[in-house]
Design brief:
The protein has 96 residues and is α+β, with helices and mostly antiparallel strands. Helix content is 38%, strand content 20%. The longest helix has 22 residues.
């Protein structure tokens, strides 16, 4: 019986790990992975973030570019944007 309880808790830990690291990946302190393409002006990179993370994306430090129907479409647009865009046109200068 103790073995069964231990096995149950181990499986539960693996499930939580999967949920946290596969389904709900946190990109950094501000963003979680999702279907909204943004450009982070402070760190100068594109990111696909979720709807809840949009509250952390406001000009002049972040620009919301577009919502895609799903995350893989956003990733494709992110890659295309990284290859052909001039990122300096997305953001206004940030006063320090």
């Amino acid at each position: 019986m103790i073995f069964l309880l231990f096995s149950f808790f181990t499986f539960g830990d693996e499930f939580e790990y999967y949920k946290r690291n596969i389904e709900e990946v946190q990109l950094n302190q501000k963003y979680r992975r999702g279907e909204y393409l943004v450009y982070d002006c402070e760190y100068k990179h594109f990111a696909c973030i979720n709807r809840d993370s949009l509250v952390n994306c406001k000009l002049p430090s972040c620009l919301n570019i577009r919502k895609y129907s799903n995350q893989p479409e956003c990733f494709q647009a992110q890659e295309a944007g990284m290859q052909k865009s001039r990122t300096d046109r997305y953001c206004k200068p940030i006063d320090n």
